[in-house]
Amino acid sequence: MSGTKEKSAALRWAVYAAVIIVAAASFFTIRFLTSAGMFTSFREEITADCSTIEAVPGPEDIVIDRERALAFVSAVDRRKIAAGGPGSQAIRGGIYVIDLSEASDAWALRPVTALEPADFRPHGIDLYVSEEGQRFLFVVNHPSDGTHDVEIFEVLEGGLLEHRRTVSSELFIHPNDVHAVGPDAFYLTNDHGSSSNFGRLLEDFFLADRGNLVYWEGDEGRVVADGFTYANGVNSSPDGTKLYVAETLDMTLRIFTRDIETGALEPFETVYLGTGIDNIDVQEDGRLLIGAHPSLTDFLAHANDPAELSPSQIVEMTPRPGGGGEARTLLLDKGDLLSGLATAAGYNGLMLASGVFEPKILVCAQESAAAETGETE
Length: 377
Prior knowledge:
The chain is an alpha+beta fold. The chain is built from 4 helices and 25 strands.
């Protein structure tokens, strides 16, 4: 009789455990899908007057030298790399320039990739201009051996690049973007805290806040902020006193007060934008242009199949010095114009918009159509 009771009690506890596991799995699944935009619907598309520049696959990031009217583009064929197979280890990406001094209908990509490093798969990029006018391009690189580093190039006449230095560190766990603040100083976002594919998958599913921000100066680096749920684009205000970090899965913009001398940061404000924000471009007047993914589940489908459309969004935000500001959507497209938009960079009233995979760049008017998305506090 006692054995029957023990079996009954064990069965009951097994049922309780199963219910708890199913409930927890359902909670995290719904939480992830909600954060990823699975239940987001479009009331209307916000169109812009756009033309297209033919490009190479994967022109994910763009930075503009406004003084010299040159746009630098970072590109690599990520789908081919992810597919693997013969020759995938030898895939090399590149840096390209667009001469913006020409008429916009003549804009085209011109390769300026340096000969080294030979193993070059660029991701986020940024440009630093010294007081003397020297220019350095900083590039996050993901070599084929699974390591990560930052490549620093000196920019020569016409945008040609000369390799200057490779910066490597155990702090570079899974870097995404870089923001240069000196000839040998930069901030770098680690979008995850795990270096393995499976670990990053778990972080995304559980919305784990394990991303961080590294500050590097000279030959030393340190983590200056953490607790990010997929840290992505990073940039600073024109005067350098505020630092902006895109937190993709939390759909928020994290703003820090920055000590220009030491690189130290203090939390200033967190702004919820309601979309999966990616790269950040800062205009000369302080406005932010932010590329965004309204549906990250559609983006994942698009990453696996180019026929699957992924909605694209461009958000403009005007921060106020004391906090808060105004945000509006300049472009909201279901993916017909461009799927998987990651970057929008502004120049003379135009935006150059690019995606993670598609071999094209959009050139759109900033003021053709926009929708107010409200004030931030």
